[in-house]
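dumping this here so i dont lose it
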């Protein structure tokens, strides 16, 4: 039997599954909607059974989601999507701008610094058969489907998807207006992945995406500002513990006013600004 990953209900019917530990940890979200539920993001490769077990701990044995959605196609968010698509016999929904990435074939116009500096040279150094096997295992070709450009996300009629490009070309966030819950993927994080000290200290706050895996930093900054205008009360990122409370939006606004880099809203100026602005400071949701 697979192990049990920590599950936290961070808002009404919104469950965060922390998959992995330390710097490699990423968040998967299980969203109840009416009599069904949907999955957002799929962690690293090989975590499908862990995610399935976490879903069954919330929704019952043998449960199956109404839909599977991805904020973006990076291996720490889409790695187990193909495995889960096979288990549940479902497609995987992504923004149309992510579809060129679905085959996991490197295209320079979509590359980020880590691709250029490390991933591509390593893949070129591997024997062709091994490189092809890695690409094939990660591919979502034939599984990925583009989101409706105007309709709600499949399986989540009470939510809407929000374009948040920059970290990847077709990155999206998901927003529920009735209680202002924002699932931000890597467009906004609640742990600072641009600073070793910030990562080790784990100070709560709002932070920009990791620069080394971000495709277009200018667009990433514009997306932070667009998400801040949603005034979220719950900020659930792809990494770090979700933040809740009236001060959450203030932290995100503070981040939008910076370069979205190593200082961010959890830094020296932004945290003070958030504390002055909010009735109740943001806090991290605790895992059970």
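and the seq i came up w/
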């Amino acid at each position: 039997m697979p192990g049990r990953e920590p599950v936290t209900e961070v808002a009404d019917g919104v469950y965060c599954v922390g998959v992995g530990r330390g710097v490699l940890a990423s968040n998967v979200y299980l969203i109840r909607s009416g009599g069904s539920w949907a999955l957002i993001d799929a962690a690293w490769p090989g975590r499908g059974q862990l995610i399935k077990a976490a879903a069954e701990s919330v929704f019952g044995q043998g449960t199956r989601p109404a839909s599977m959605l991805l904020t973006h196609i990076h291996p720490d968010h889409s790695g187990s999507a193909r495995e889960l698509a096979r288990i549940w016999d479902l497609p995987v929904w992504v923004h149309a701008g992510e579809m060129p990435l679905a085959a996991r074939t490197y295209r320079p116009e979509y590359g980020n610094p880590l691709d250029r500096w490390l991933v591509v040279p390593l893949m070129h150094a591997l024997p062709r058969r091994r490189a092809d096997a890695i690409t094939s295992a990660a591919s979502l070709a034939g599984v990925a489907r583009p989101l409706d450009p105007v309709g709600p996300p499949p399986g989540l009629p009470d939510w809407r998807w929000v374009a948040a490009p920059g970290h990847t070309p077709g990155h999206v966030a998901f927003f529920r207006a009735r209680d202002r819950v924002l699932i931000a993927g890597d467009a906004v994080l609640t742990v600072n992945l641009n600073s070793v000290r910030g990562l080790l200290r784990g100070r709560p706050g709002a932070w920009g995406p990791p620069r080394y895996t971000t495709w277009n930093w200018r667009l990433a900054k514009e997306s932070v500002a667009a998400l801040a205008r949603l005034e979220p009360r719950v900020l659930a990122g792809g990494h770090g513990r979700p933040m809740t409370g009236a001060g959450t939006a203030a932290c995100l606004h503070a981040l939008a006013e910076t370069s979205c880099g190593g200082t961010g809203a959890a830094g020296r100026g932004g945290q003070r600004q958030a504390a002055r602005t909010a009735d109740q400071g943001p806090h991290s949701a605790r895992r059970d």
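The domain at 7-284 is CATH 3.60.15.10 (Metallo-beta-lactamase; Chain A).
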